[in-house]
Fold:
Amino acid sequence: GIMDGVTAGMEIGASTEILAGEGQILTAGGIDSHIHFISPNQIPEAFYSGVTTLIGGGTGPATGTNATTCTPGAWNIRRMYEAAEAFPLNFGFLGKGNSSLPESLREQIRAGALG
Structure:
């Protein structure tokens, strides 16, 4: 939704209240939608550049993570969300979308796969 008082075509002018930002971290909140989750070191880099949401996949420093942006299986998706709890950002983990039967896809969605 849109915040109260924010409207389409809103202009900043003489009647706009400006808030001081000293001592604050203020960002519009960028979204990076193509992350290979290889290392926790990526998180501060994203944060420092104004990115507040990371969407992608992987399981850390594994060969499969280098090649794809999906997290294989419900167990790995749950572990990635557990690891992400330590960081002040928004995360979305993509599951693996190829399966001969639909149940493994459902398991990944139940585990929290964003897509």
Summary: The CA atoms of residues 35 and 56 lie 4 Å apart. The mean pLDDT is 88. Residues 30-110 form one domain.
